[in-house]
Amino acid sequence: QVQLVESGGGLVQPGGSLRLSCAVSKDVSSIYAMGWYRQAPGKNREFVAVITRGGNQDYGDFVKGRFTISRDNAKNTVYLQMNDLKPEDTATYYCNAEDGDYYSDYVNLENYWGQGTQVTVSS
Question: 24: Cβ–Cβ under 8 A, 6 or more apart, which residues?
């Protein structure tokens, strides 16, 4: 099992910045992939960013160029740096881990989720 705890959310003005943190209960460098998702009231959960064990990154279309995902292996922590925040970014942000058994020719992964941290962008 992997336990995830998000922190760093809050209220920020449009154009401001926040950095979210996700504390991971195991060696983060061994996890297949770490990601961030967000969900606003009444809307579906939306992909934000992902970083794989090998360091490859991908982002949702609406956050490219503004958000950056990173990993600190020594601290077992994943970050989401959010710049130039917009009101449309208001949501609960969730940390995600894909982890399990993986080999050169076989993978068997499960998804793990944190409980979320609220981000509100408003003047």
Answer: 2, 3, 4, 31, 34, 76, 77, 78, 97
Smallest Cα–Cα separation from 36: which of 22, 56, 15?
22
Three-state helix/strand/coil letters over 11-68 = EECCCCCEEEEEEECCCHHHCCEEEEEEECCCCCCEEEEEEECCCCEEECCCCCCCEE
CB-neighbour burial class of residue 107 (10 A; exposed 0-12, middle 13-18, buried 19+) = exposed
pLDDT in tens, the chain (123 residues): 899 999 999 999 999 999 999 999 999 999 999 999 999 999 999 999 999 999 999 999 999 899 999 999 999 999 999 999 999 999 999 999 999 887 888 888 999 999 999 999 999
Long-range contacts of 103-111 (CB under 8 A, 24+ apart): 107/32, 109/32
Give me the torsion for CA of 80, 84, 87, 88, rounded to 10°. -60
